[in-house]
Amino acid sequence: MTTQASAPPTTKSQALRSYDVADFPALTGLEEEWRFTPLKRLRGLVGADRTATGTVRHEYADLPEGVTVERIGTDDPRLGSVLTPVDRVSALAYSGTGQALLVRVAQDAVVSGPTILRAIGEGSEGLAFGHTFVEVGRFAEVIIVLEHVGSVTLADNVEVSVGDGAKLTLVTVADWADDAVQAQHLKVKLGRDARVQHVQVTLGGDLVRQYTTVEYTDRGGEAELYGVYFADSGQHLEHRQLVDHTVPDCRSYVGYRGALQGESAHTVWVGDVLIRAEATGTDTYEINRNLLLTDGGRADSVPNLEIETGEIAGAGHASATGRFDDEQLFYLMARGIPEAEARRLVVRGFFAELLNKIPVEELRDRLGEAIEARLTKAGA
């Protein structure tokens, strides 16, 4: 007796979701979701080994009033209430994690100052798994920064629950050491009239693959997703988003910008927006721009819109990849600015709009300096 293989899902809404690694077939690299990812560089994260021998520790300074941080067990009912894994690596992280970090913001709290947490990898040998749950109570307002540094081979999930009427600014920074590998799934679930602004910055690591999804549970939700990434020689930086409009009268905006320099620098951006039949009144737009600073780099950019209703306020997407604008360089050099400095000014201007979305001045300045240091190191 033969069994006919089931057809692959034709829409994002039909994608397999499961907490069990065994429900996902072994990865071959031929899958649409993985065709840009060099699987061998994911090390053991493509297997089924759930033994965590790597270590990631967390640091944070004094917490603002209204914010608490604690460790919780995997039997806590909140875990999995926002995010159900949609791929094998995310499921591996879910089952391989022994405990999770809970960041809780009390309802009605208007938190003064940012909450800054740092995840520090302590060696790329062995696998590490992580799980973070961010719970923002009703009508709360807060800025949360999650930084990632050090050496690691990490698969992790981040669940973000934003209550009715709450406002969250979330900044995530991946500034890993050169040998680090990370595959992350971050999902945000928005309540009625809730708003999230997520700024994702990716600079370090050998291979970093970040998948961000957004789900709306009631009317009036707003999601703004911004991304800044800079791939140096040999780096693979991959960013994917799925904004799932499931209810009426919600809004989303996705804007990512990346720069590449050096031989075999590779970036991937895949932006998926799904507007379901019941999501009337949706207003959405996504755009990705990439700047090639040298020969030898490759930027893959794939915007997708899947629309199941014509009763929307607006939907669009755009993508552009190019080199330095020679006219801009000529304009600056004609005014006595050396070519290397002129190039730095162009790159600084390219990223400035999105870096200014980060509401923490010290972090914003530090990231800007890190980008300029890369340009200086390469002699750009």
TrEMBL record:
A Gene Ontology BP annotation from the UniProt entry: iron-sulfur cluster assembly
Domain of life the protein comes from: Bacteria
Family annotation (SUPFAM superfamilies): Stabilizer of iron transporter SufD (SSF101960)
Any matching Pfam family: SUFBD_core
Record-annotated SUF system FeS cluster assembly SufBD core domain positions: 123-350
PANTHER family for the chain: PROTEIN ABCI7, CHLOROPLASTIC
Similarity comment: Belongs to the iron-sulfur cluster assembly SufBD family.
Protein name (record): Fe-S cluster assembly protein SufD
UniProt source species: Micromonospora craterilacus
Lineage: Bacteria, Bacillati, Actinomycetota, Actinomycetes, Micromonosporales
Gene symbol of the encoding locus: sufD
